[in-house]
Amino acid sequence: MNQSPSSQPGSDGAGFDLSQFHAIFFEEAGENLANMEGLLLDVDIDAPDDEQLNAIFRCAHSIKGGAATFGFADVVELTHVMEALLDRLRRHELVPTSAMVDTLLESGDALRALLGRHRDQGDEELDFGELVDRIRVLTEGAAATAGAQVAASAEPAPRAEAPAPAVAGAAPVSGKRRLAARIGPLARAAIADQLVELFHDIPGLGEIEPADAGELDDGGYRHFSIVTETPDEELLDLFAFHVDRSQVSLRLADEGPDGAHATGEGAEAHADGWGLFEGPAKQGAAGTRVEPAGAAPSGDTTADAASGASRPPAAPPGGAGSGRRADRATRDASTLRVSVEKVDQLINIVGELVITQAMLAQTGRDLDPIVHQQMMSCLVDLERNTRLLQESVMAIRMIPMALVFNRFPRMLRDLTAKLGKRVELQTVGEATELDKGMVEKITDPLTHLVRNAADHGIEMPEDRIAAGKNPVGRITLSAQHRGGSILIEVQDDGRGLGRERILAKARERGIPVSDSMSDGEVFALVFEPGFSTASEVTDVSGRGVGMDVVRRNIQSLGGSVEIDSAEGYGTRVSVRLPLTLAIMDGMSVGVSTETYIVPLGSVVESINLEPSMIRSVGGVNQILEVRDEFLPVVSLQDFFAVPRAEESARGNSTVIVVEAEGQRVALLVDELIGQHQVVVKNLEANYRKVPGISGATIMGDGRVALILDVAHLVRRARH
Amino acid sequence: MQIAEPERTLSGRSNGPVPREYLTFRLRAEEYGIDILKVQEIRGYENPTRIANAPSFIKGVINLRGVIVPIVDLRIKFGLGDAEYNEFTVVIILNVHDRVVGMVVDSVSDVLELAPSDVREAPDLSAVVDASYIIGLGTVAERMLILVDIERLVSAPDMAIVA
Q1: Residue where a domain stops, chosen among A563, A578, A593
Q2: ipTM value for the complex
Q3: What is the pTM of this model?
Q4: Which of B61, B65, B101 sits opposite A696 (nearest CB)?
């Protein structure tokens, strides 16, 4: 906006309190920053993709617009110089350099800090004057020779993107231009006169003259001639106070009728700016593009495609830089921004509904099906509908892994620069979805694994060349659904794990090992607390506090982690997680008068027991032979000290073989009751963590049943 | 009876301001009072689901409209003899420090408003209830109420509810 930011953030001259929109602005600015960072990291210095440059420009522009409205002058200043640099870049007046990308990334961080301070109303001093100067210096740098200097007459070209985010900001900030404005269709001619008032009220906006006699033409339109320096985008924003955006059409006056310019329809779905007047972004709408560099049509989505990883589709001709992303999740821009509490509330209520429906089903079982035929068929329908409702609601909380993977390119870039290594990151399966709650908890462990891969896995470039490898190492992050779980893998093509080194280190630490241990068991030693074979501790990793915490965090989510490696070739860490924490398939078992739930995912098989099948070892421990394997027997009655009134025929007569972390154990119970989907309730909300129990659920009769922590039982049994 | 330091009577031991309205209940022959604002509801007793290896005074957990709530039997905790569970047994559901906890008592009486002048400092006896949890002794008509800071009591480590 040309008006100076008001001194009092949150209100403007008209006494309109804008502070209620702050939250939306900060959220969207955050997304714009994340988007911008991703795009910057993706830029190929040698063959920059115009679409990407434009998108980066738009991100900065959006933030600037919003910041100006709310009076955040420091943000405006920084984004303004960024815009200037980006503008020159996308118009090929400058050749992109690595220094520019680094500086822009740094600016992104600075913006985050500034916005954070505004949001939290902190008072620490943040001065980025030096950064601003640096950007200015870069902006004044050598003009590009590559590509034709965009001549003045071809200037409309960047504005020629028909779809919504009309990059009208590309209009020369300096230099007047003459516009022909067509306003309508209007109900009354006088409505458009208010636009004339705008030009009177706002100094420096420009000059406007009616190009008609003050009356509507046959189509109900008014025509004006405007001479201004103000970018189209800002004019449109101002006009929107009086007329609908769809009613405004701006054309350069010295262009022909088919001059490439954002038409009315394009201007309407303005997704640029502050998101206050959000409309769906148009995808690849009509409109000519007089674009010298011939980039791909921008069927892109802007930052308002809320949660999804909105990247432009990987279609740019010769866009080598963008080929680095293996998958792209293109999101439809019609999304809804909903608070997490509302979704959680919905999930809770649906969970209750599932329980009530189960109770109804149980009660209905006692009824005579013939007499109550109508009721029974209703119950069947109810069960189906409840199940579908539950699946749909759980799906709401699922978000793509891309959100977890997004932070790694930047992290790796900074990390490898510090370590002097060269690493390429590849991501597969970014669109794989995971429950939002798990996403938050898996991020730290994954970060640690990636840092490890970069720090300990990938060798220095010279070592790699000496080993006959590509000097650029590769780290691959992948996510896929496997059975009822999600499998996330971090794989590197580095030096791999040395079996002997690990064994030696283990012996050094007093961990009992033997040479006959399988590779898998040796590699698993890495998870022991304090274990690190790093020859030196860097400030990145190597202190050995990481891997055991990683494993514990993953286990607390009900997941498991494994390492596989080949010395000299690389290492792969596989993390397996349940798809969601809230609902689980379980098998209910009876022990005396109590019922326990065994997670179905860990059940291998069940066996009817003859007493003679259980042998004892050392008089205390009991083992059972199952398919040529001897498994330790865990009696749930003993483990949970379940009181038993009297020995019954059914007592301790069934065995459930369960598996966790690659090891098996035989659970001794009275009987198998059934199999159901259970809603997992947190025991620790009001009570505390109980060893051997991972949660609780409510059965069909309204009573609470405890869910077994199989991993814990297995661990206890095998030590 | 003169109180040596009147200013120090009530808030000396407990954390927050002295509550005004108390829910009174009985444990054996003794009557206790707790801040009514900490009470969420009062229910009859239902058999909880036992939790292995928990202290004997933690009976287990119940399902309270979808929330898992631990149940504590104060009669067992304070060693007041045999605890009976019949149709008159009452469970007071408390909401303290964002936790929901139920406690079993013999019976619940009424809600009383007590002015600070009705509350006297409790003498320092090594009572069943650790004196640090007692706000004071309230007198109403002929009754003596042992006023307990229930929030502090429930959060105490030896209650084994808060991890």
Answers
A1: A578
A2: 0.78
A3: 0.54
A4: B61
